């Protein structure tokens, strides 16, 4: 083939590539922390799942209330601060949760070596995020199921720092602490033991992603494409934990965690995913989540109507789409 014959196909290739890039919609996805709980977003980016949907995504780390404000102002398109978003929706913000990453909470309860069973927590101090938050409520439910009463334990506000919680247990300031999957892996390396997976309590949809009513009304096609990429990211995390770990080592804020420790954390995380296609919560889970993540924290007397804070119709469509593809393989 002559030079002209080579140049023309290459020219068409470059034109096609630039045209595809030009069609990509630029979006921003906010996550509360660059931790294992949100590795799926980085997986969706790294594996090209978002690009496959014509989306050029930028992931930014913004805490809950600030992320909700950024969503309302249009500075971000999707926010992983689902709890903050739903509570804002209850008081009038035009927001809805469109998916939940997990069907159960991803928290574990790590303890010092003296705690052998849940009833051993009687008279002990337990570190939680803050008094009255969802961690606190579920930890209290856990000890109640062991036959204790809330007054049998003392809950200590400890913020979000995993290392602060580990240090608090090691020094005896507390005897137990709630931790995410990556944190509990680090805790075990420091000599702590894992007493329980709080996700075993009951279904509780977790890590909800929120968008605006305006986007739902005006750009539902983008929501479907974004959801499709997110579901692929979660499924990849579950099915390819080693590759997901390699992505996490590059993208997450991990401190001194090793690749082997992160892999262990990934495997603990996927325990919270539902069987089959993730993203669409169960009815039982929705009821529990609205109670413990919305009504009780807001001290509301009335039950919260799901349609006030949720719009899961797109996620339901995507779930059926994936299930049909699997059935036709």
Instruction: Tell me the number of helical segments per DSSP (H or I, 4 or more residues long).
Output: 15
- The poorly predicted ranges are 6-21
Chain-averaged pLDDT: 91
Q: What's the count of strands?
A: 10
Keywords:
329 residues; alpha/beta; three-stranded parallel sheet; 10 strands; 15 helices
Task: Please provide a brief summary of the model.
With 329 residues, the chain is α/β, with parallel strands linked by helices. It is 50% helix and 16% strand. It is built from 15 helices and 10 strands.
Describe, in plain words, how this protein is organized in 3D:
It is globular and about 60 Å long. It contains 15 helices and 10 strands. Helix 2 packs across helix 11 and helix 10 crosses helix 15. 50% of the residues lie in helices and 16% in strands. The strands form 3 sheets. The chain has a 5-stranded mixed beta sheet, sandwiched between helices. A 3-stranded parallel beta sheet has the order 2-1-3, sandwiched between helices. The protein starts with a helix and ends with a helix. About 5% of the residues have low confidence. By secondary structure, the chain is an alpha/beta fold.
Write the layout of secondary structure elements.
Layout: H1 3-23, E1 25-31, H2 39-46, H3 49-52, E2 55-61, H4 64-73, E3 78-79, H5 82-90, E4 95-102, E5 108-111, E6 125-128, H6 134-145, E7 154-157, H7 162-171, E8 176-179, H8 181-189, E9 193-197, E10 206-212, H9 213-218, H10 220-239, H11 241-251, H12 259-269, H13 283-295, H14 306-309, H15 313-327
Helix pairs in contact: 2-10, 2-11, 4-5, 8-12, 10-11, 10-15, 11-12
């Amino acid at each position: 083939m002559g030079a002209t014959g080579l140049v023309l196909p290459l020219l068409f290739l470059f034109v096609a590539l630039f045209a595809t890039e030009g069609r990509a919609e630029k979006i921003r996805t906010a996550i509360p922390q660059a931790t294992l709980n949100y590795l799926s977003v980085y997986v969706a980016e790294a594996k090209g799942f978002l690009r496959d949907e014509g989306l050029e995504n930028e992931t930014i780390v913004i805490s809950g209330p600030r992320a909700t404000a950024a969503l309302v102002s249009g500075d971000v398109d999707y926010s992983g601060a689902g709890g903050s978003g739903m509570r804002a929706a209850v008081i009038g913000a035009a927001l809805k949760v469109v998916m939940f990453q997990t069907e159960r909470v991803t928290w574990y309860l790590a303890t010092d070596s003296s705690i052998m069973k849940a009833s051993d927590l009687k008279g002990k101090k337990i570190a939680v995020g803050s008094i009255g938050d969802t961690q606190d409520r579920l930890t209290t439910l856990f000890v109640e199921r062991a036959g204790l009463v809330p007054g049998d334990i003392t809950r200590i506000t400890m913020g979000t720092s995993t290392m602060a919680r580990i240090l608090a247990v090691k020094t005896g300031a507390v005897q137990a602490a709630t931790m995410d999957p990556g944190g509990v892996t680090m805790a075990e390396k420091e000599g702590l033991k894992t007493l329980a997976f709080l996700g075993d309590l009951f279904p509780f949809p977790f890590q909800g992603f929120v968008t605006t009513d305006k986007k739902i009304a005006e750009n539902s096609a983008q929501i479907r494409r974004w959801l499709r990429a997110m579901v692929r990211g979660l499924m990849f995390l579950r099915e390819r934990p080693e590759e997901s770990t390699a992505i996490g080592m590059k993208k997450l804020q991990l401190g001194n965690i090793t690749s082997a420790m992160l892999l262990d954390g990934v495997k603990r995380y996927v325990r919270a995913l539902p069987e089959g296609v993730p993203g669409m919560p169960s009815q039982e889970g929705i009821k529990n989540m609205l109670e413990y993540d919305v009504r009780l924290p807001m001290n509301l007397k009335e039950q919260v109507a799901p349609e006030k804070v949720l719009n899961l119709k797109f996620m339901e469509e995507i779930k059926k789409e994936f299930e049909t593809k699997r059935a036709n393989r």
